[in-house]
Structures are given as structure tokens and as C-alpha cells.
Amino acid sequence: MTAILSPSEFVPATQAELARYMTENAAGAMHTICPVGGRTAMHFGAASKTDVIASMTGLTRIVDYPARDMTITVEAGLRVDELQSKLATERQRLPIDIAQRGRATLGGALATNTAGPRRFGHGTFRDYVIGISAVDAAGQLFKAGGRVVKNVAGYDICKLLIGSRGTLGIVTQVTLKLRPIPETSSIVWFSFSTFAEIDKVLQRLLNSGTRPVAIDVLNAAAAKLIGTAARTRSTPSTPVLCVGFEGSKCEVDWQVDTLQREVANSGSLTIDRIDEPDVDRIWTALTEFQTCADDPLTFQANLLPSRCMEFAEVATRLGVVIQVHAGNGIVVGQLPDEAATIERTTTILAELRQVAGTARGNLVVLHCDPEWTTRIPMCGTAESGLGLMQRLKRQLDPHGLLNPGRFIDAFGQ
């Protein structure tokens, strides 16, 4: 049975029920629809004003779990922590860091293509989704991929829907390939006087004999914030380089020892190794960084990895608290309390956006005061493929019923 929580919210119990609702809506009222899961990224990129919220939290079935094949098929409303708990019974996992995993749903995380510090070693949803089911704006249920890893038939609709923010279709079911849970993990926490010294170490890591799963850089303010959240032994007052490893105890020990030898003369002020169980708190704090503060605005920038330390220097000078996924060229920043006015915020973002732009990147707003969303370029600068994306949107959603105003709509039609 359909559950209607209010005149503006719809919670389907099955994929077929959602498809029927979408069909009737497209043929009649033509309400605009915003698909949601755990509502942890409602303001990601840009806000959308819609008539109906379609909550996927009723779609929580585990459809198929052939553990020996290391794949699982689940409905999109399943919470991430419930998914990981189920996989842990077979010593398996989806190796993607997802913030607020107790609230976030698989479909919502997939729609925003969220990832965290271990993206460097393990990749993103595009590396793990092998099958997908979704409903388009007209109520048509469509599928792509399959339940086996080697299924490569047809167009790669999976990658098209990942990161589309619910603007092309509502994801209802996903098949994922999985990985074993590693025996152990460790993070080496280096503190340095300057970002320039860290940049030299990052260059050395390109030729390292080690294979880190995470390479994060924190300015002093971020190191203090994450150190406090993770209850580490020390909270450095200078920039920090975090290098994470996973695997058997033997290979993790070898990699940590090798890394320490490789950077022995790099000028690091302190070197701390964090092992289990304490390291789990560091992984969590690094993952939750973008959500753990009440600062006026949080953004994400993407740029060439080789320019990340330059961006970090500018952001730190402007008082921004930053976490840099240095191996991927992704920066998450939180503006300081001093930037509580729209004028100051706009000035800071303009300077950071200019740096990102010269480094072939962009900057999007993850969260800010709702009143600011119409006064700030939430999605940054239009990219070269915008025209193609807009044409694709019109083909799949000709009446603009799915998440109007969000993502590519933020640049106008």
C-alpha cells in the first residue's frame, strides 16, 4: 500500500508502485518531483523547489546476495550502515566512505557519487555498480547492466545515473560488486611546517614502493578538528599529511616502514602511526569532515592534483578549514565563522573559484544557509559538456519533472 505522509510526500513500497505513480503524474497533474533517501545531501550543488518529495526509504529489500560471487543486489532505500552490516557477516564490504552512514541511503549516495578519503585506493560508485534499475519521469521502469561482474552488454547507463542527482531518473535497485574486509589498516600522520614541504613528499609518493588507499592533507585547523573528533594523542598546529594503508598485517607493516624510510629526510616535524582500534576513529573523522561542523558554508572543489597545495595555501590564508584528497584533486572546505555574511562568503568563494578554474577545476557548494542559495553560484562555472548534458536531460525528462533547478538546471536552459 502507498504511504502518504503528507500531501507533498510520497513513499512507495515497491518499484512498481513508484512506476505507477510516475505514470499517472506524467499523464495528469505533472507535479515536479524530488527523490530523496536519508536527506543528507538535500542542498548538494543547488536547491530545487518541487511539488512532491518521493522518499525511497520504503525500498529496503536485499534482493539477492550470492556471497561467493562477491556481488549483492539491493533496493536503493537501504541505509548504508545496514548494507555494510549485512556484508560484514560474510567479511565483505562496499569500500566507499559515505558520511552519515546511519542516515544515508544507497540510492542517495549513488545519486551524488559520494566518496571519501579511500577514494584514492578504492575508487567510487562507478567502479562498483554493475547493474541498476530506475524509473524515469514518465513512469517507465528501465534497467542496465546485470548481476554478474562480466556483464558489459548495452550502453553504460549505470555510469550515467551515478552522480546525476536524481535529475534523469529515480534509482530503485542496484547491483554492486564487493571486496573483502581487510585484516587491518593503519594511518601515518605526518606534520609539516608548510604545504610546500608536503608537496615535495606528494611528488615522492608518485614513485613510492607503497600503495596507499588514502592520501589526505589537512591544514592546521582541520587537523585540530579531526584530531579532536577522533581523540588522537596529539593535535598538530601545522599542516598534516595522512597516508592510509589496508591489507594483511604483514603488508601494512611493510608499507608503513617503507613509507617512513622514503620520507625520513623530508622535514616532517612529527610522525605518528595510528593502528586499530584507534585508526577506525580517524577514518570516521576524515569521512565525516564535510558534515561535522556548523560553519556558514561547506564546499567541494575539484582541480588538478598537482595544484592542490597551491589551493590549500590560498584557502588557509582566507581562514578556510580544508581537507585535501591529494591523490584525487578534491578539496572539501568549511568557511570560518567570520564569513557569516553573504558579502564575505561571496568574496572568499570568488577567489577560491579563480584558483580552481586556473587548475582546470570547479567549485560547488555542498551546504549553506538556505537563504543564500539564490545569491551564490551553487554549482560553480558551467563546464564544456553542459550543452550535451542539457540535451540529454531534455530527452530523458522532456517536461522537467525531476529535480528542476538542480544540477545542470542551475545554469539555465
Question: What's a concise summary of this model?
Answer:
By secondary structure, the protein is an alpha+beta fold. The chain has helices at 15-27, 80-88, 106-112, 119-122, 157-161, 195-205, 220-230, 249-262, 278-288, 308-317, 342-358, 386-396; strands spanning 3-6, 9-11, 33-36, 52-55, 62-64, 71-75, 92-93, 129-135, 141-145, 170-177, 179-180, 184-191, 214-218, 240-247, 270-275, 297-302, 321-325, 330-334, 362-368.
Please explain how this structure is put together:
The chain folds into three domains: 1-181 and 383-413, Uridine Diphospho-n-acetylenolpyruvylglucosamine Reductase, domain 3 (2-Layer Sandwich), CATH 3.30.465; 184-288, Alpha-Beta Plaits (2-Layer Sandwich); 293-372, Alpha-Beta Plaits. Strand 5 (62-64) and strand 6 form a beta hairpin. The strands form four sheets. It has an eight-stranded antiparallel sheet with strand order 15-12-14-13-17-18-16-19, with helices on both faces. Strands 5-6-10-8-9 form a five-stranded antiparallel sheet. It has 413 residues and is an alpha+beta fold. The chain starts with a strand and ends in a 17-residue tail after the last helix. The radius of gyration is 22 Å and the shape is globular. The chain has helices at 15-27, 80-88, 106-112, 119-122, 157-161, 195-205, 220-230, 249-262, 278-288, 308-317, 342-358, 386-396; strands spanning 3-6, 9-11, 33-36, 52-55, 62-64, 71-75, 92-93, 129-135, 141-145, 170-177, 179-180, 184-191, 214-218, 240-247, 270-275, 297-302, 321-325, 330-334, 362-368. Mean pLDDT is 90; it is low at 1-7. The longest helix is centred in the last third of the chain and has 17 residues, at 342-358. It is 30% helix and 23% strand.
